[in-house]
Specification:
This protein is mostly helical. The chain contains seven helices and no strands.
Length: 322
Amino acid sequence: MSVLSIGRLVRSETQTPKIVGERHGYEGLEQKLKEVFTERTGIMRQLSKTSKELDSIKGNLQTLKNDDSVAKADVLKILALSHKQRGEMKSLQAALQKQLDEATEQAEKQQATIKFLKMEMEKKTKIIKDLQQENKSLKNKLLSGNKLCDVHAEESKKIQAQLKELRYGKKDLIFKGQQLMDLEHKLTIAKEELEKAALDKESQLKALKDTVHICFSAVLHNQPTSSHRFPATPTNLFRYSSLVNSSRVTFQQPHAKDIPKVQRIITASKSPANIGVMRRDSSPGVKDCQMEKKYTATPEIHSRSSLKTQTNKLKPFLLVWL
């Protein structure tokens, strides 16, 4: 092996640390270390070969010395070259040792950093798993929230529909309330009218009762006390008034010829204004009752028959107006 090839190897070995220093990463360093070890083994092999060559050279020198065929000057040159090669080999070994030490230190540092990075990666993976679980829970919550939103939307639609129905129902109730108010107003008016009519009827009934009492009192007053069965006393008048006020006795409808003059006057008008006229016209009835005095001088049988005829005439009159 020549000296030039050894120099090239040394230069290539000096350039390798620069390349190793520039690269970063655990895998690159391992590859570089493997290359350095392979180069070292190759150099050691070359050194062993060179040592063998030197031994052979020594043997040749000895042979040359023995043979005295080679000049001493050539031998000295060869020895100087061998010394130089040994020095270069020692310097190469020192450089290789330094490179190996630096590579081991960098490898240890990188291993420590790798361990630290692994720990951080494990922590980050745990954090990522926790975040994934939180994301899943949040997704589930979002899904449940969306479902609740849909349910609330449906409920809001139903409530809006119910509100619309209530509005329409409110309008209907307002309309019906107005109708009820109108009906109440009409009922109050009708009630007032009925009360007025009832008052009119009560006044008419009072007037009729007064006329009947007058007629009965006049008839009973004109009959003599000895010939009568019913004396003209207040107690007897109350008896006849009870007959007048009773509504349970039923009689047939009288003919127009049997109705006295007082009844015809009252049937002509039922208003309160005509009641006064009825009262004024009741005096002829009294006169008619007084005209019965001619029958007072007759015997008792004639007086009783006249009383019966008068009461029979007055009974239908009372039933019609009571």
